[in-house]
Structures are given as structure tokens and as C-alpha cells.
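User: Can you predict the 3D structure of ABC transporter permease? Sequence below.
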Amino acid sequence: MMSTVTPSVRERSGEAGAHASRRGRISDVYAGFGMMLRFLLQRNWLRMLIWVIALVGMIALVVQSQRVAFPTQADRDAYAGIANTPAVAALTGLPYAASTLGGILNIKLWMTVAVALAFAVIFFVARNGRAEEESGRTELLRAGALGSHAYSMANWTAASVFSGVVGVTCAIAAIGQGLPVDGALVMGASFTGVGLVFVGVAAVTGQLAQTSRGANGLAASVLAAAYIIRAAADLQADGEMTSPLSWLSPIGWGQQMRSYAENYWAPFAVSAGFALILVAIALALERRRDLGAGILPDRRGPRTAGALLRTPVGLTVRLQRASLIGWTVGLLVGSVFFGTVATAMANILSSDNPIAQVFRGGQEDILDGMLGLLVIMNVLLIVAFALQSSDTIRTEERTGRAELAWSRSISRVRWALSRLVVPAVASLLLLAVSGFALGASYGSSIDDPQQGGRFAAASLAYWPSVLLMIAFALFCAAWFPRAANAVMWGSYGVVAVVSMFGDIFSLPDWVVDNTPFTAIPLVGQDFSALPIIVITVLAVAIGALGFRRLRERDMTSD
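Assistant: Sure. Here are the predicted C-alpha cells for ABC transporter permease:
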């Protein structure tokens, strides 16, 4: 009897021990999760609050302005008649419930909020994840009692909480403006779903890449692909019948929730489930790699650096080569796409509807107004690249690498110039290339080969505006280094929103017409050198102030 009972007890004891051991290992790898989550929320609360205020503020402004623009149901029905076109579908998605204020809100703002939230969580995860590994702070944390997955999991959880807060507050803002509760809740959930997916995407790319720039670039490429797939799917739609291609895009999943129309909740489960799968993949990848390393291996370089790489500018080019290639490919694809559909877009702008006035951009020729806005959109994307590239001044100082350069023979001004000349020259090339691609693809649709050169020249007129933003990035890094990133990107966001959507928000004309981008004459308008000269002088002055302060102040870390 004892011979049969004893092994059974031992087996049970062994199983209990194994379970206890597994529980112990699981608790070990997540030890300190709660502490790290509180730390990340406390560290990033101001950034997250600014994002929430900006996104929720846009919801309230757009609802209020559209209530004024479309005061009667007849006005909304007329709008719905022109909204269901390939042009609107390509830009903002299929127009569900376009004859309601909620549907109009979706058409005008849903895509902007979703894409902005996706970028926000990508930057959040990379900044608090891969960038901290680069600086060595994660290694210090994990050298103590912190579990191996605790910090990463806290990072992804904090970004997910942020996505949820954005969704809830957007829903509350819409309800506060008198929109239907069920539609507002679905709209907020659709934003959260997109945010959760890109938390997962950023979690995976943070394991693949070895630098925060690489992680951001990979995640942004996924976002660009999701947007293009969504646009292609919506162009293939038959009325409100979506193309199956839409289900290949996380942005498409959010749109499939059809807020203020059918109010479907099932696509949110798809988004949340896919996000969990991505996080599980990221955890598995984190177990496989060494701290500080990425899954994607670095190629072995030559034993000695070439003549160009031994110069400060050559080193900067080498460090930013992958990012520059990614931005170039993305801008080319986007420019060709929008140039191809430009004529279709213009077909809906022949009426006197308020939305036509917005896209007209104050021009007599509606097509030129539409193309002018597309050029500004390209320019704003190029500015985003330029700011990302210029931000390396602050990044290098924060991580201590700038100290090594500053302690040698190179001066701070020369070092900073070597960091800024790359975004300055690269933005010039990107303006020419993307402008030519936009014009050439548009020209091919109307059999006019001259359009490529015309739009390349129109895009190059914005180069002083890009230089002004680069100088502002230097100014921020030099004068208030600890808040430089937030001020720089916050200012960019305000300028971008005013430039693209100022008319939609019914902002005063003097505000809309005097940003660094709207002050430049649009395609088809009479050329004026005055705004270009003023912007160039401002760029030189702000840059000079930045260089002077950078030369005089002490080094500053976070």
C-alpha cells in the first residue's frame, strides 16, 4: 500500500514544487512592475496631458465649427452627397453616416486623431524603451531587484493606458458636444484600438532595432503601410461595402467600427487581440536577445573608416542613413499616390459647399488649391524628418556622447553644424524629389509632362520654412534642453494643425495665413519673394541665438 501511495505523494509534491517554481520565475521576471508603471506615468504625465488636450481639443473645435457650417439637416444631406467620393475615401476613409454631425466629425478628424495617436504611442514606447537601453539606464535598473520583463511591460502598459485615456476623453468631449452617446463611445474605442495596435508594433520594433531611431523608423514604416493599404482598400470599396483589403490594415479595423453609423464593437476585439499577440511576440524576442542588442544584426563594417566617415558630417550621414532612406521611400510612395488621385479629388471641389472652400485654399483654380494642400502635406512630413534628425543634438548631449566630441578639438558650434547640415541638405533633396513625384504622377493623369518640374519648384519654395523649423529645434536644445523635445514637437503640432485645418476650425485668417507654411504662395498663386526673405531672416536669427547659447552654457542631462 505504502509503495503505491508514497510515489503518488512524491509526484504531487513534485508537481506542487514545479508549479511553485514556475510561479516564482514568473513573479521574478515581472518583479517591480507596479513601481516602474508608476514611475513611467509620473515621468511622462505632462507629455501625455499635452497630447490628450490637443487631440480632445480638436474634437470639441471641429464639432462646434461643423455645427455652425452645417446648421440644418438639409446642409448635412448636401454634404453627404459630395462626401461619398473616391477623393474623400482616399484621404479620410469611407464616409459612414455622412449626413450626421458625428459622421462629419469622423470624415474630418477621425484619421487625423488615429494617426496622431499612433505616432504618439510609437514615440512613447521608443523613448521609454529602446532609448533608455541605449543610455544604459535600463541596465542599472535590471541590475537590482527589477525583473527582466518588468520595465518593458510597464512601458507598454503605460502607453496602453494613454491610448485608453485618449479614447475615453475623446468620447466624453463628443458627448459633451451633444453627439449620441453610443456613437461617441464607439469612436473613442476605435481610437484606443488603433493606439493599442501600435503599442504592440512599437514593442516589437523596439526588440528588432538596436537604436531608438531604428525602432521609430520601423514602426513609422508599418504605420505608413497601414495607411496606404487602408486608402487603397477604401478606393476599391463599392459604396459603403468595404474591400476585404481593409481588414489587412489596423487603421481599417478602427474605421470598420463605423461610429455614429452601425456602431460595431467586434473590430475593437480584433485590434486588442492583435495588440496582445504583438506584445507576446515582443516578450518572446526580449527573452532571446541580450540587453542593449537588437534581433536584427548589425552588418560588419570595414576595419578602417573612409575619409568621409572620419568627418563629423560623414558620421552624421552614416548614423542617419537608414532613416533618410525610409523617409525618402515613404514620401515617394505617398507623393505618387496623391498625385494620381488629385484629379479625382478636384472633381468634388467644384461646388460652393463649405468643404470645397476649405480645400480651395483661397484660390480661383480648385485643382491648384487641392494640389497646393498636398504640397504642404508633403512639406510637413519633411519637417517631421528634419526635426527628428535635428533632435540628435539633444539626444547626443543627454546620453553623454556629445561630451566626448566636445572634449576634443571640434568646437560645439562646428559639431552642431555637422548635425544640422544633414537635415538641411536632405530636406532640400526630399522637397525636390517628392514635389517632382507628386507633379509627375499628377501630370501623367492629364498628359502634361511639365507638371513634375512645376511642382518641384513649388516644393523648393518651402525650404526656408523647413530651415526655420530646424533652427527652432537648435534653439530649443540650446535654451531649454530639458523641455526641448516637448516644446519642439508641440510647436510643430500646432503649426501643422493650423496650416492644414485652420479653416476647418474657423481660426482667424491672420493666424491661418501666417504660419511658416501658409505664408508661402501656393501652387498657381502669384510668386512673392517677401515671405521667403522674412522666413529666411528669422531662421538665421533664431539659429544664431541657438548657436550662441549652446556655446556658452554647461552640459545638461535629464
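The chain has two domains: 30-288, 308-552. The chain has 24 helices and no strands.
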